[in-house]
Design brief:
The complex is a heterodimer of chains A (122) and B (106).
Chain A lengths: L2 E5 L2 E3 L5 E8 L6 E8 L5 E7 L6 E3 L7 E6 L4 E6 L8 E11 L6 E4 L3 E5 L2
Chain B lengths: L3 E4 L2 E4 L5 E7 L7 E6 L6 E5 L3 E2 L7 E6 L2 E6 L9 E6 L5 E2 L3 E5 L1
Parallel strand pairs in B: 2-11
Antiparallel strand pairs in B: 1-3, 3-8, 4-5, 4-9, 5-6, 7-8, 9-10, 9-11
The chains are: A mainly beta (122), B mainly beta (106).
Amino acid sequence: EAQLLESGGGLVQPGRSLRLSCEASGFKFEDYAMHWVRQAPGKGLEWVASISWKSGSIGYGDSVKDRFTISRNNAENSLSLEMNSLKVDDTALYYCVKDTSIRGFINAFDMWGQGTVVTVSA
Amino acid sequence: DVQMTQSPSTLSASVGDRVTITCRASQSVYSFLAWYQQKPGKAPKLLIYKVSNLENGVPSRFSGSGYGTEFTLTISSLQPDDYATYYCQQYNSRTSFGQGTKLEIK
């Protein structure tokens, strides 16, 4: 069964850093773009970052650009999100998400992990 | 950036009702539009991609239409399992989501 398993969330002070990880299984990870989407408590979905299958294309949402870095390791079927200079507004459930399209970049998102919670608070 | 606006934000409907949710884009996204369903405490689930294509396993009572800047998600006969929050997503220019439409029991 295909699945995505996030880890690395937790409580962190403003200005500090945190690294999220996502372990993929059950599908050919190296063929698909991957994404991070977050959801603040009681709020809607917000796109955070995307990376293409071979890391040739990368994109970030405006609110995280220059602070977050997405990366992937196809040999280990893993996706990461390095989050620096964290702000209170970054508090959210972070989802690891698989793209629908083989060897594309950003399309519809057909598989979501259960998410990992990041809380930024003093 | 492309802004996506859904209406209504909240919708009250009864089992068996025909329900329509609208999503408007601030600029044309052509046919690069998807719909998701999210239930409380759960991850979103892809329902429809490229305006009108049903994801595998999605009941045929769900349908989508539109082009350019205006899109609709229709549930032909509302079922108890359909009470959830629905989001549209454009993926023509990077990507962005609508603010969500909460479908409540009337």
